[in-house]
Design a protein that fits this description.
The structure holds 2 protein chains of 2 kinds.
Chain A (H helix, E strand, L loop, with lengths): L2 H13 L6 H9 L9 H9 L10 H19 L30 H19 L18 H4 L7 H4 L8 E6 L3 E6 L18 H15 L9 H13 L4 H4 L2 H16 L14 H15 L1 H9 L8 H6 L8 H13 L5 H13 L1 H6 L2 H9 L6 H11 L5
Antiparallel strand pairs in A: 1-2
Helix pairs in contact in A: 2-15, 4-11, 5-8, 8-11, 9-11, 12-13, 12-16, 16-19
Chain B lengths: L7 E9 L5 H10 L12 E10 L2 E10 L6 H8 L4 E7 L3 H5 L1 H11 L5 E7 L11 H11 L2 E4 L8 H17 L25
Parallel strand pairs in B: 1-3, 1-4, 4-5, 5-6
Antiparallel strand pairs in B: 2-3
Classes of the chains: A mainly alpha, B alpha/beta.
GO biological process, one term (chain A): intracellular protein transport
Subunit structure (chain A): Interacts with RAB1A and RAB10; in a GTP-dependent manner.
Pfam families (chain A): RabGAP-TBC
């Protein structure tokens, strides 16, 4: 039996049990989930991120409940004042109760305008997610029907579209001849929304992030969350099984929420100094480099090359901006399988630095910052094996 | 150690709201290219370019920062060591212009007093979407006594000029007006490869 076949049958054994042994699942996923068959990774991630319970018999019920809940979120939270009466045939005088100039903080319009500021930021970021692949600009097979069939009115990106009042330049030339130049709009943008009835994957992500921001007002949306939700959604939306793929949006939302629950401190400024804040992660990394390779540590220390210059991004984004997407997926298999999340992340970051040892020891400050900020392409297995060795594991 | 291939090292910083085009400006300047496909900057990014000014080779170390509030604690720690700061807004986005005042306050709080500043109104190629007039940009710059320029990273307008003007202003400051008035000049610390500001 080939190694892959053997591995697949091990996955089968674990996943087909009535009650899945999460410890064994973690162990096997740590070594990477095979890309084929395609449905394996999304299923394992749903389990590792505690979205699916170990008991198989309760999956149907859980999924049904969660997915219905997600639909309620969409209905309740993507508030469209003025549109809420759209179903009533009669025109209602909205000004009596609420109107765009209402200063009452409870006003739906106030919420609407505040939301739009968050939305504007999300909109900018989802449109520039993974620009090297075309996936996120393509249409999804499962657009949100409630939204795409509403005459474009409720689509989130429409709320923050830059619009310019129509204007014309009036030019007077000599003898009272007046020339009116009407400005012409330029061509469509790269990430143009799809036509009526269709929806691009980035629009789906925009909705997920917006709902997350609405439901987590203490945190809101922070740049970089797009880079966390992206790979999860990509995995789920590419599931070859349509019964899963169809619900990629709702499933991603909950897995993302669960993951954020564990890493959200990285995204909160006031927690930078806290036990699980980003600064403590960066000092753990520095200490690990120091313990494993004092020369490299000393070099970076002497050059005053602070970990913030490179590892802030590495850690906050779980390395999603440092490697191509397939490698990120592989890294995340190990990260999610790590029983003490996210200590293996530190090991990977440390391994990355140690693998660049020779260059770091000869490079000057500028060369070294550049090198660390643009990690050279490398077989991801080399990085992971080194990290596993540092963690006292084998890979 | 590698031999020094430059005479002076200037540290510059790009700040401004997210999406105004800081990364694109820097990319245009360092690689003379434009790309609409940039991922959002998280934390801080870095580029190097050596320019020649008045016969001197000047190495520009340029830090590109994330625009969102969350990253301010990370990014403001770079203000202190910066000798020049470029404050960027987007002429097609009113809000980014309004926030200039906020960014100036940040500079006052965190940067060296004598840091050279410059305001850039970016995306000047998108005339049909303009909402901030050139006059408004000039006015705010005048009010604060700062250099001002409208730029387009996409159409390559004023990008090189902006960087050389800023570098020149720093050069004037650090090198006084050449020998004759050297006597009464305050000695200025010319930074070397290793930066002197504390961090971590």
């Amino acid at each position: 039996m080939s190694i892959l076949r053997k591995k697949l049958s091990e996955f089968d054994d674990i996943l087909n049990a009535d009650e899945i042994d999460t410890v064994s699942l973690g162990k096997i996923c740590f070594h990477g989930v095979p890309d084929e068959p395609g449905g394996l990774r999304p299923l394992c991630w749903k389990l590792l991120l505690n979205y699916l319970p170990p008991k198989r018999s309760s999956w149907l019920e859980t999924l049904k409940r969660k997915r219905e809940l997600y639909n309620t979120f969409i209905e309740d939270l993507i508030v469209m004042p003025g549109e809420s009466n759209a179903e009533d045939k009669e025109r209602v005088d909205v000004t009596l109760h609420d109107h765009p100039l209402n200063l009452n903080p409870d006003s739906k319009w106030q919420t609407y305008f505040k939301d739009n500021e968050v939305l504007l930021q999300i909109d900018k970021d989802v449109r520039r997610l993974c620009p090297d692949i075309s996936f996120f600009q393509q249409g999804t097979d499962y657009p949100c029907q409630k939204i795409v069939s509403a005459n474009g009115q409720q689509r989130l990106h429409n709320r923050v579209q830059h619009t310019v009042l129509k204007s014309a330049n009036v030019e007077r030339k000599g003898l009272g001849i007046t020339k009116i130049a009407v400005s012409v709009r330029k061509a469509a943008e790269d990430y143009a929304p799809l036509t009526e009835g269709g929806e691009a994957h980035w629009e789906v992500l925009e909705r997920i992030l917006f709902l997350y921001a609405k439901l987590n007002p203490g945190q809101g949306y922070v740049q970089g969350m797009n880079e966390i939700v992206g790979p999860i959604y990509h995995a789920f939306a590419c599931d070859p099984d349509p019964t899963w793929r169809k619900h990629a949006e709702a499933d991603t939302f909950f897995c993302f929420t669960n993951l954020m629950a564990e890493i959200r401190d990285f995204f909160i400024k006031t927690l930078d100094e806290a036990e699980f804040g980003i600064n403590s992660m960066m000092s753990k990394l520095t200490n690990q480099v120091r313990a494993n390779d004092p020369d490299v540590w000393l070099r970076l220390h002497q050059q005053e090359l602070c970990p913030q210059y490179y590892s802030f991004r590495w850690l906050t984004l779980l390395l999603s901006q440092e490697f191509p997407l397939p490698d990120v997926m592989r890294i995340w298999d190990s990260l999610f399988a790590d029983e003490s999340r996210f200590s293996f992340l530190i090991h990977i970051c440390c391994a990355m630095i140690l693998l660049l040892r020779d260059q770091l020891l000869t490079g000057d400050f500028a060369a070294n910052v550049k090198l660390l900020q643009n990690f050279p392409s490398m077989d991801i297995q080399i990085v992971l094996s080194k990290a596993a060795a540092l963690a006292g594991k084998t890979l | 150690m590698a031999k020094k291939t430059y005479d002076l090292l200037f540290k510059l910083l790009l700040i401004g709201d997210s999406g105004v085009g800081k990364t694109c400006i820097l990319f245009r300047f360092s690689d003379d290219a434009f790309s609409t496909t940039f991922i959002s900057t998280i934390g801080i990014d870095f580029k190097i370019k050596t320019v020649e000014l008045r016969g001197k080779k000047i190495k520009l170390q340029i830090w590109d920062t994330a625009g969102q509030e969350r990253f301010h604690t990370i990014t403001t720690s770079y203000y202190r060591g910066a000798m020049g700061i470029m404050l960027v807004y987007d002429i097609t986005n009113e809000k980014t212009f309004e926030n200039i005042v906020k960014w100036l306050r940040n500079i006052d709080e965190h940067a060296n007093e004598d840091v050279e500043k410059m305001i850039l109104g970016n995306k000047s190629d998108m005339e049909e979407k303009r909402v901030v007039s050139t006059e408004k940009g000039e006015a705010i710059a005048r009010e604060h006594g700062i250099r001002f320029m409208e730029t387009s990273a996409k159409a390559n307008i004023n990008i090189d000029r902006a960087f050389s003007e800023l570098a020149e202003a720093i050069l004037d400051k650090t090198h006084g007006k050449e020998p004759q008035d050297a006597a009464d000049r305050v000695t200025v610390n010319i930074p070397r490869e290793r930066n002197s500001n504390r961090c971590c």
